[in-house]
Amino acid sequence: MQKILLLLLSSLTILLADKPSAKVVYDLTTKNQKTFERKILKAIVANKAYYESKLKELEVTVVIHGGAYRYFTIDPSKTEYKTDKALLADYANLKKRIKSMHEIYGVEFLICEAGMKKHGLKAKDIMSYVKIIPNSIIGLIDKQNEGYAYIPVNDQ
Length: 156
Known about the structure:
The protein is of the alpha/beta class. Helix content is about 45%, strand content about 20%. Helix 4 links the parallel strand 3 (about 110) and strand 4. The longest helix is centred in the N-terminal third of the chain and has 21 residues, at about 35-55. The chain is globular.
């Protein structure tokens, strides 16, 4: 039984190794919670499932700036977002869903340090698994030069 399992696992590894992974970088600037949920939280899961069904991996990075900082703070009630009632009402749920994106789906989150300063945010205010980068443009340039497809998620 173990030999059969090992053979199946080896075969699957060979199949996956033959197919290069797909890569996408989301340029996340939206402050609209419904857009964030639809185009990030739901879409990434659906896209990951699609590529898995094709025995292909999807590498996902989200570059955070603009109005999107609000979703990645440890406690928005202690930031300039304290008046966003919709965010505060659903934040515990959003926080869990965002964390699962990182832990379960391997999504890499990069946040713009230049913009953090403009919004009065410090590293201690941001979720621990979100990597702080000097600015969003550098993150987007680097990912696109690594072959990531570019997808904007904004308020327009």
